[in-house]
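Now for today's protein.

===
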Amino acid sequence: MGDTGRLMKRQKGFSLIELLIVVAIILIIAAIAIPNLLRSRIAANEASAVGSLRTLNTSEVTYNSTYPNVGFTCSLTALGPPASGASATSAAAGLIDSNLAGSNKSGYTFAAGTCNSANSIVVDYQWKADPQTAGTTGQRYFCTDVSGVIKFHTSSSSTCLTAGTAI
């Protein structure tokens, strides 16, 4: 009966050392997985920025064809959606979505570069896409212009068109 009494009093469950081992294993797995997750997010943001610049190129060509007396535009608002119930105009052509028209999308900030006019018609355009937080939301800076070529630079969108690498 002595052995039986001791077995009856023994509690079921995990010991503290077993729980600590499980927590340590979970922390090791998290330490491996989190950097990969962050790299995946950066890659997705960069792909979105390139897609948005392609959209801007297409929108600029459409805008120029639709409003030849204006030419191209260097305003995201002009490419953006018109007010609810309003028709598209050269001030709000409805060619891009409201997120991109607001200049921030998927961790990138979009801005116009240099635009040149001739006889009050905009004859060319440049668009730049900078990561909102370099190294966190994106690694590369992107740009495009009237040529339609999208380029990237590793440190600046200001030198992207002259020193960037075509995608």
